[in-house]
Give the backbone structure.
Amino acid sequence: MIDIFTRIGAAFVCAVIFCVMTVKMLGAMQQSGYKNKTFLHWLRRGDNLFFNRLFVLSLSLAVFSATTSLAFSFLEKKWALLISAIPFFLFLVVFILVDYKYALKLPYKITGRFSRLFVIYLLVVFGVNLGVLTLLSYLSGLNGSTLYGLIAYAPFSLMPMLLPYLLCLTNLVCAPFETLRNHGYVNRAQKILNQTQVIRVGIVGSFGKTSVKNILKELLSVKYKVLETPASYNTPMGIARTVAKEDFPEKEVFIAEMGAKKAGDIAELCALVKPDYAIFTGICEQHISSFQSLENVFAEKSRILESGAVTVCGESLQERITSAFGENVENVLFADYSNVSNLEMTATGTKFVLTLDGENISVNTKLLGRAAVENILLAATLAKRMGLTGEEIERGLLGVGQIPHRLQLLENNGVYILDDGYNCNPRGAVEALAALCRFQGRKCIVTPGIVECGVLEEKLNGDLGARIAACRLDYTILVGETLVGSVKKGYLDNGGDESALVVAKSLDEAKERLAEWICNGDAVLFLNDLPDVY
């Protein structure tokens, strides 16, 4: 009986330590959207050494624990095994302390789902630990050899290598419950939306959704009480969480960002939100990895036009929309770029005059580049359609600030930093490079390339390299191993200066190289700071 309780205690203590030391894996699983396939891609990626460290840990645990047990074999077997546990737990603690410095670029968020996954993962690890220890104890008794008994538990040292796969198993077990739970949240949100008279606005597109949403929110707030989905919450659950807020019934306008990674996503979001108005920013090769072609991207995003919402579309969409839906598309307006005049784009801001329904609106914003002009035009066009005057739109634009990680200009000790970390599309990359080139001092770009473009990734990253070469930047730092080969090839094939190009294995290494190079007056563009799972 004592042996049973000892095994239970040892299994539980080891389970707690194992789960604490691999909590970073749960963060990677969270970044992967709780998809095992994406998580395993992160685990097996060439530049990710996490599994290698687990292997080294397992090997160290086996060697030192078994050696210690044999060294104290002159004592009773139970005392030798007890003493051998000292290096076992010591190595686990050292692993936790050493691995702590290898933080995820995006810290995990302790959400309800994350907490539930951690608890079930702990229970699964505990159960497997107990099963393995019981089996090893049985085999030790079956063998009967004293020497074998001293090393009988060495195979338990391999447990750390199984932890990633136990996490995947746990995630698989939890998935049906989480799906049902999410459906419950969405259904409650649907009921709340059906019971309110709030004006609903949906924003779709391959790029610019969050920026347009933030601009539109500032404009409409001059006249209405507005609530928008926060950050990049653009899924049914993100919308459901926003609708569940206590102050939602007090709002007059609800702006929902709508994302799509597969066919049917926009239709699902439209059925949930039932938008009265919408903005369709445009399309590009983003998410072709899941949609397979640009035509499929358009087919999905354009579902918003079938929702019945009055929709303002980017001018670049006009040919596609008229071809697909006819010349006189009902409830569709196209942003008219001829309404923009006196455009002045500088390194630190953008000025122009916007004419809507005969009213001239002076725009002076800290937002950068042509994309900022297009985003403001889209938001202002819809705001005018929703009843705002030119004076109200101009007043609302005064409240529009820079949007974090979206070509956000920061100044630090005389160094200009363009933070475009959330940019992940070819069109935005062109705009970001153009913004960087407007600075007068030395210029540098730090980028891992562009993702989620499927079979076009090699070509698009080659094009990115060519554009970087054409800009004649003073320093180019490519980060990681995933995509930089194509960027580097495009750069060198198009006359880029090889002496001004370096490849860093990680963002931390890139920052170290940058710190050695940079000085007062320089400008640095951080283009697309990929999450760890890429």
User: Anything to note?
Assistant: The chain has a mean pLDDT of 87. The longest helix spans residues 159-194. The chain has 20 helices and 15 strands. Residues 70 and 432 are 63 Å apart (CA to CA).
